[in-house]
Amino acid sequence: MSGAKGQPRGRRALRPRGKLMAEDTRRHHRALVLQHLFREGPASRADLARTSGLTRVTISDLVAGLLEDGLVTELGAPVGSRVGKPPILVGLVPDASHILTVDLLPDDRMAGAVLNLAGEVKARENLPLEGRTGNDAVMLLRELLRLLRKATDRPVLGVGIGSPGVVSAEGVVIDAPNRGWRDLDLAGLLSGELGLPVFVANDANTAVLGEHTFGDAEEAGLLLIRVGAGVGAGLIVEGALVQGHRYAAGEIGHVQVDPDGADCACGRRGCLETVLAAPRLRARMVGTTATEAERRLADAGAVLGGILAPVVGTLNLHELVLAGPTELLDGALREAVGRTIRERIMPVSADGLVVRTSTLGDDVGLMGAAVLVLSGVLGVS
Ligand SMILES: [Zn+2]
Questions:
Q1: Helix (H/G/I), strand (E/B), else coil: 256
Q2: What is the CATH number of domain 16-92?
Q3: What is the C-alpha end-to-end distance of the chain, expressed in Å?
Q4: Are 328 and 296 in contact (CB under 8 A)?
Q5: 3-class SS of residue 37
Q6: For residues 161 and 198, is the Cβ–Cβ distance under 8 A?
Q7: In 70-140, where do the E strands start and end?
Q8: How far, in Å, from the CA of 304 to the mean position of ligand 1?
Q9: Ligand 1 centroid distance, CA of 362 (Å)
Q10: Other CB atoms within 10 A of residue 82 CB
């Protein structure tokens, strides 16, 4: 079939496949080496060849390229190696380049940080949000990124942003009602202006990546519930982030838990958010005794547990992480979540389930934003 102007449709989109595949293969091999150094620490070229299954020649070539880029350095021989010709260890250079990260979840400010390749915070910048939405919020984000870029003298690997709302895999904010953003190509817009790779993802998805890479997460299935002005969830199953059919996986905050409940920002009633969002939890505890406050937190935890039980039962998740204000989440609420889930699903499904708070505290979103860049540019996570 021909197109309107006689050109076969799609023909022009074909790429020089052979060359591209060779480049893809090299990128993949380079990522394998970086991933090993990122996860396991320094290694010799022989170690890298053994663990990657690549030849010594290929590894030497890849390491030479990484040395030239300054991403890795030779660290000398391992401690305790024998005389003769000890292997030279190669290690990642954490400050070879820096990552600019932004967490758009807080409703009072835009939180930004500069992180190095090891996820260490090197600088922080915060700008008060003062109710800005739409283009004003984009302008504030530009200003924050300008400050972050000034805060580092290292080359910048890329920009990672966690945004509320539904965000496509390409970094288009499809719908973020509380920022007044709809079909906003935030990644495209900013990468064009900055000349840097920019990655944008939903804030709860970003947080679960942060917990998975830099927190104490294990490999067997992780659900992170992020509690702030709203409630969202990020899910990693079998090592992969679950994005969903329309990128809206994890939008658990607007599951109705009480048809007669309080009005919700989405226009419906009694959503999980009306029970669990941090401002709602705090409001419910005003003027109560310590015992009563604890009981109310446990009630909220039981509601959350009730919503999560079918999810945990279906996916046989290993870890459930609560991220948000620990004074609210880490105690009666967390205990009630675990108790309720165990009551409602088969022991075999709940066996070994861990319910805990994030070890990364408020930084979980910023760390996750760094993971977007690390995985997007270097292929490590
Ligand atoms: Zn709602």
A1: strand
A2: 1.10.10.10
A3: 44
A4: no
A5: helix
A6: yes
A7: 72-76, 89-92, 98-103, 109-116, 121-128
A8: 14
A9: 24
A10: 7
> Which 8-state DSSP code applies to residue 97?
S
Q: Start-end ranges of CATH 3.30.420.40 in the chain?
A: 98-208+364-378, 218-358
- Enter the tokens of residue 146: 């300008």
Range(s) of the chain covered by CATH 1.10.10.10: 16-92
CB 100 within 8 A of CB 195: no
User: Phi and psi of 43, rounded to 5°?
Assistant: -150, 160
Q: Which CATH class is domain 218-358?
A: alpha beta
Query: How many angstroms separate the alpha carbon of residue 320 from the centre of ligand 1?
Result: 22
Strands of the sheet containing 198-202, edge to edge, are: 121-128, 109-116, 98-103, 156-163, 198-202
Q: Does residue 107 sit in helix, strand or coil?
A: coil
pLDDT tens string 88-120? 999 999 999 999 999 998 878 999 999 999 999
Give residue 266's Cα distance to chain centre: 25
255 CA distance to ligand 1 middle (Å): 7
Instruction: Return the pLDDT at 93.
Output: 96
The parts of the chain modelled with pLDDT lower than 70 are 1-20, 78-84
Q: Please report the pLDDT score of residue 68 as a whole number.
A: 95
Q: Measured in angstroms, how far is the CA atom of residue 273 from the centroid of ligand 1? A: 6
One-letter amino acid of 270 = G
Question: Positive or negative, the Cα torsion across 366, 226, 164, 132?
Answer: negative
Q: Which residues pair with 253 in a beta bridge?
A: none
Q: Which of 247, 249, 271, 246 is nearest to 260 (CA)?
A: 271
Topology of domain 98-208+364-378, CATH: Nucleotidyltransferase; domain 5 (3.30.420)
231: CA distance to ligand 1 center in Å? 10
At 236-282, the pLDDT tens digits run: 998 889 988 888 898 899 999 999 999 998 889 999 999 999 999 99
Q: What is the pLDDT of residue 80?
A: 66
Query: Quick one: which H or E segment has residue 331?
Result: none
**pTM for the whole structure:** 0.88
Residue 20: the pLDDT is 59
Report helix, strand and coil shares of the chain as percent, to nearest 5. 45, 25, 35
260 C-alpha to ligand 1 centroid (Å): 13
